[in-house]
Structure formats: structure tokens, C-alpha cells
Hints:
The protein is α+β, with helices and mostly antiparallel strands. Helices cover 38% and strands 14% of the residues. It has seven helices and four strands; from the N terminus they run ααβααβαβαβα.
Amino acid sequence: xxxxxxxxxxxxxxxxxxxxxxxxxxxxxxxxxxxxxxxxxxxxxxxxxxxxxxxxxxxxxxxxxxxxxxxxxxxxxxxxxxxxxxxxxxxxxxxxxxxxxxxxxxxxxxxxxxxxxxxxxxxxxxxxxxxxxxxxxxxxxxxxxxxxxxxxxxxxxxxxxxxxxxxxxxxxxxxxxxxxxxxxxxxxxxxxxxxxxxxxxxxxxxxxxxx
Length: 211
């Protein structure tokens, strides 16, 4: 059908997606592009059609700098748990592009949205959180299709980020995403290139009928 994405193009897009840290150019993102990317995220499936996500757009340097200072401190906390060899390797790995990226998008989870009777969540309490992760994946793929890099920063404490952005209880911040144009998408993911981990083959995680 006309306008349909080809199988080849889809799988190429999935393979090109990267967790970007060092390749951001800092160039602007147009309002139209950002709206398309956020629209793709907002069209993600959600348990009971609860749509439990919100998107906080962060562009102010002062806010980004405060967050990055917190990330640096948490990086040091993690480094202290490593043995000497792992710590030496980790020291060479860049974990964020908070200041280099054009903007940041913080994605949150509101468990009260659609409550108390969220269809499909009565037996799996985390189904709403899974829905937010689907929105993040939609955002990530759409950004990649637009030539934008995305980097998920996970070195933070939720109470700090909630206070920094004025996120009300009991809403949870799920992801701080650095977003912006990039020089290129690396052919090999950062952590593989640095030697931290290698991707397991599909066969290693595939089971049939039972575990």
C-alpha cells in the first residue's frame, strides 16, 4: 500500500537506533519535528487506555547543569562499587549528553491516571509502568527516523529529579532522555565499543514452550 513503511526500512531503523551520549551537535530541533516525535510517543499502547505518561521538556541551562552535577555524583557512587579493572574501564565511558544535547525530555508515570479501575492492571501492578516504557520506545524510534539521537540517563535518584522539576507525588520520573541532532549514529553501541558488555545472540535467550 502507498505510504506504508517497508519491512527493510523498519528493521534498518531498529538496527540504527542507539543510546547516544557523545555525538550530539547541539543544533535546534524544530517544533514540527518535536511534535511528531512526541505524537508518536503519545500513540503508544497503554493498559486500559490509561495513557499514564507525561512529558516534561527541559531546555534551561541552569536546570540541565543541576541535573548533570547530580549525575556526576551518582556516577562516582557507582564507580566505588567496582573492582579495579572495571573501574578503570568505566572511567573511559561517557554516560550522558545532558549539556551537549539540544533538549531533554523527562517521561513520567502517573499510576492514578484512570484509577481506581484500570482495565487490565488488576493482576499486574506494573502494567502501567510497562506502558510508559512503550511510549519511550515509540519516541526513540520516531526520533531516530527524524535523524535525532536519544540518550537515556539512568544515574539519578527519583526524589532529586522530582524536586528539581516539581513533579508531584505520587508521579514517578521514569526516564531523563537527552534529545537532539547528531553527527552520526555509531555503527557499534557505546558499551560494546568500550568493551563493557557484548550483545548476546538471540539463540541464547530464546526458549520454546517452557523455560
